[in-house]
C-alpha cells in the first residue's frame, strides 16, 4: 500500500515543484498553492460519479463524444470553474505566472487522486507510464489554462472575458485530442501519443517563458524605486 501511494503521489508533487520553482519573480506561499491542490483533488469524486452514470446508461460512449465531452469537457470545465470562482478574484492572484502555478496545482490535485485510485485498482507496475502520460498531461493542460487565466487577469487593455473562455476551450480541445488518441488507436496509441506529448510540453514551456517575460516587464520597475 505504501509503495503504491508513494508511486502515485510522487509524479504530481515532482511536477508541482518543477512549475512552482520556475516562477522567477514572485513565488506564492506554498500554503495557498497546496489549498488549490486540495480543491483539485476533491473534484475527482463528483466527476467520477458523473462519468460512471453516463457509462452505465450508455450515453456519450462513442470515441469522439466520450473524449471531448465526457472526459475532457467535464474535467477541464470543473477545473476552470474552481479556478474562476475560488482563485481568480483573490488578492494573491496578481501575475500571469500566478495563473500557471494555480492552474497546475488544481490539475495535479485532480491527477494525483485519480492516479492513486488507478494504481490501487491496477497495480504499481503501471506507475511509470501513468507518470509519463496522464499525470504529466494534466499538469500541461493546467499550465495552458493558468496562462490564459493570468493573461485575462493582467492584460487590462484586452478582452478579458474572451481570454478567460480561451482558458477553458484550449485545454478542453487538447485534452480531448489526448483522450481521442487513446480511444481511436487503442493498440498503437504509444506511437501517436508520444509526439503529441512532446508538442504539448513545448507549448507549455513556451507559456512558462512568456509568463515570466511578462512578469519581468513589471517587477524590475517596482523594485527600482527601492534602490539607493
From TrEMBL:
<keyword id="KW-0645">Protease</keyword>
<feature type="transmembrane region" description="Helical">
    <location>
        <begin position="188"/>
        <end position="205"/>
    </location>
</feature>
<protein>
    <recommendedName>
        <fullName>Protease PrsW</fullName>
        <ecNumber>3.4.-.-</ecNumber>
    </recommendedName>
</protein>
<dbReference type="GO" id="GO:0008233">
    <property type="term" value="F:peptidase activity"/>
</dbReference>
<keyword id="KW-0472">Membrane</keyword>
<dbReference type="Pfam" id="PF13367">
    <property type="entry name" value="PrsW-protease"/>
</dbReference>
<feature type="transmembrane region" description="Helical">
    <location>
        <begin position="127"/>
        <end position="150"/>
    </location>
</feature>
<comment type="similarity">
    <text>Belongs to the protease PrsW family.</text>
</comment>
<comment type="function">
    <text>Involved in the degradation of specific anti-sigma factors.</text>
</comment>
<keyword id="KW-1003">Cell membrane</keyword>
<feature type="transmembrane region" description="Helical">
    <location>
        <begin position="33"/>
        <end position="54"/>
    </location>
</feature>
<dbReference type="GO" id="GO:0006508">
    <property type="term" value="P:proteolysis"/>
</dbReference>
<feature type="transmembrane region" description="Helical">
    <location>
        <begin position="6"/>
        <end position="21"/>
    </location>
</feature>
<feature type="transmembrane region" description="Helical">
    <location>
        <begin position="162"/>
        <end position="182"/>
    </location>
</feature>
<keyword id="KW-0812">Transmembrane</keyword>
<feature type="transmembrane region" description="Helical">
    <location>
        <begin position="66"/>
        <end position="88"/>
    </location>
</feature>
<feature type="transmembrane region" description="Helical">
    <location>
        <begin position="100"/>
        <end position="121"/>
    </location>
</feature>
<dbReference type="InterPro" id="IPR026898">
    <property type="entry name" value="PrsW"/>
</dbReference>
<keyword id="KW-1133">Transmembrane helix</keyword>
<dbReference type="InterPro" id="IPR023596">
    <property type="entry name" value="Peptidase_PrsW_arch/bac"/>
</dbReference>
<keyword id="KW-0378">Hydrolase</keyword>
